[in-house]
Amino acid sequence: MVCGSRIFLWNLRLVNQPNFDLAVVSPHPDDAEMWCGGLLAKMAALGRSTAIVDLSEGELGSRGSVQLRAKEAAQASAELSVKQRFQAGLPDGRINPADEEQVDKVVAVLREVRAEVLVVPYEQERHPDHSAASRLLRRAVFLAGLVKFKAGGVGLRPWATKQLLFYPMRVQAAPTFIVDTSEFQTQKLAAIKAYGTQFGLVGNGPATLLSSELSLQSIETRDRFFGAMIGVSHGEPYLALSPLRVADPVDFFRNNSTFSALLFPERI
């Protein structure tokens, strides 16, 4: 009986193992690269397994096509050494946190991905899909961990991610922390430029915010701004729902002194 109990516990540990160290959820193919490309490249360089979950195929994009976008996404993933890319199949332009079918689809994908750290869009954003995706994901992350919540068929066991983080895009938000991505900016820009149709680098199409000459410049400027806040050349901001625990402040601040900051957040 003791032996059987040990086997049961061993099997339980196996089914509760993560498939990825970190995954970024992207409302459309290109969002993850634009706003978390540095993080993804850095994690891969550190030996972490990474994934991207695209909620939609970006079928409403003014430029290019779904087929071209998929090829561009594959190239972008390779630039960032992303291990695997998933597609949730939600409708572009109609992402809806109140749609139970959409929630079920995302719960199923999260249970398949099984990421220890999940990075999702910040709610306050310019694009309606980005805001809706944030709200939908907060529901789906919670439900994915419930044993009795059925979604996605047989074999997809519940999964409770260790940490949920948010990435702001075009809306300014006070970050909980900033990741130093200085050494990975070239990789990030290469991944972004893989979306040539979207950024006006290849093909023809109507003028959009992304195809503007200022689009890539604005991303570079943003990363330099957040980098300056921690005293490095480039950085990406992330938010958590609650304060982060620091076990040993002395050890932590030996490598993360705030005295190197060149710019500071607004003070009231």
Largest sheet: 5 strands, parallel
- Give the overall pLDDT as a whole number: 91
N-C termini distance: 63 Å
User: Which parts are unreliable, with pLDDT below 50 for 5 consecutive residues or more?
Assistant: 8-12
- The coarse silhouette is globular
User: Numbering strands along the chain, what is their spatial order in the largest sheet?
Assistant: 3-2-1-4-5
Radius of gyration, whole Å: 19 Å
Give the strand content.
5-15%
Order of helices and strands: HEHEHEHEHEEHHEH
Total DSSP E strands: 7
Structural class, please? alpha/beta
Number of helical runs? 8
Please bin the fraction of helical residues. 25-40%
Please tell me about this protein's structure.
The protein is of the alpha/beta class and about 270 residues long. The chain is about 40% helix and about 15% strand. The strands form two sheets. The protein has a five-stranded parallel sheet with strand order 3-2-1-4-5, with helices on both faces. The chain has a two-stranded antiparallel ribbon with strand order 6-7. Helix 2 (about 30-45) links the parallel strand 1 and strand 2. Helix 4 (about 100-115) packs across helix 5 (about 130-145). It is globular, with a radius of gyration of 19 Å. The chain starts with a helix and ends in a 13-residue tail after the last helix.
In short:
The protein is of the alpha/beta class and 268 residues long.
